């Protein structure tokens, strides 16, 4: 079973860039990630703030908001098992309740990120489930 390891994009070891969509402040992108176990190709990880359907307000707690990482294809393959993809645990379980539980992904008010992700291949085998934390460069 492979482990989930993200490597920063530049030789200066700064964090990957966190971008916010200008048209929708609930949409984010981590730009310049690498999954070093499978290659050096950079990829972007898109995610969105989970909002309450009735109020439109962000779901979360004091100082943080829950976010969703919907299924995304990565630029890597895992041998004969096929293309590697990533998703949050709620998508893996096909149950949004997981997004607001201990399995949820969060962004804090100071842009610290904690993702609990499922890495899987097109053949259906699970490659990894792991927690990754990202934060702004000091």
Offer a quick outline of the entry.
With 138 residues, the protein is mainly beta.
Map the helices and strands:
Elements: E1 6-7, E2 17-20, E3 27-35, E4 43-49, E5 60-61, E6 64-68, E7 72-77, E8 83-88, H1 89-93, E9 105-108, E10 113-121, E11 126-134
Antiparallel strand pairs: 1-3, 2-3, 3-4, 4-6, 5-6, 6-9, 7-8, 8-10, 9-10, 10-11
Description:
The chain is 4% helix and 46% strand. It contains 1 helix and 11 strands; from the N terminus they run ββββββββαβββ. It has one helix spanning 89-93, and strands at residues 6-7, 17-20, 27-35, 43-49, 60-61, 64-68, 72-77, 83-88, 105-108, 113-121, 126-134. The longest helix has 5 residues, at 89-93. Mean pLDDT is 76; it is low at 1-14.
Helix content: under 10%
Largest sheet properties:
11 strands, antiparallel
Number of strands: 11
Strand content: over 45%
- Supply Rg: 15 Å
The first-to-last residue Cα distance is 33 Å
Low-confidence stretches: 1-14
Mean pLDDT: 76
Number of distinct helices: 1
Briefly note the structural class of the backbone. mainly beta
Task: Give the helices and strands as they follow along the chain.
Answer: EEEEEEEEHEEE
Assign an overall shape: globular
Features of this protein?
globular, eleven-stranded antiparallel beta sheet, disordered N terminus, 138 residues, 1 helix, mainly beta
């Amino acid at each position: 079973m492979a482990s989930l390891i993200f490597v920063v994009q530049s030789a200066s070891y700064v964090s990957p860039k966190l971008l916010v969509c200008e048209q929708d402040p609930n949409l984010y992108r981590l730009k310049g990630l690498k999954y070093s176990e499978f290659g050096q190709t950079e990829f972007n990880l898109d995610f969105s703030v989970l909002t309450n359907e009735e109020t439109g307000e962000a779901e979360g707690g004091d100082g943080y908001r829950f976010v969703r990482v919907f299924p995304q294809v990565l630029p890597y393959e895992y041998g004969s098992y096929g293309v590697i993809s990533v998703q949050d645990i709620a998508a893996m379980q096909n149950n949004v309740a997981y997004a607001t539980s201990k399995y949820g992904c969060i962004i804090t008010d100071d842009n610290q990120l904690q993702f609990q992700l499922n890495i899987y291949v097109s053949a259906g085998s699970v490659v990894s489930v792991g927690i990754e934390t990202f934060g702004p460069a000091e």
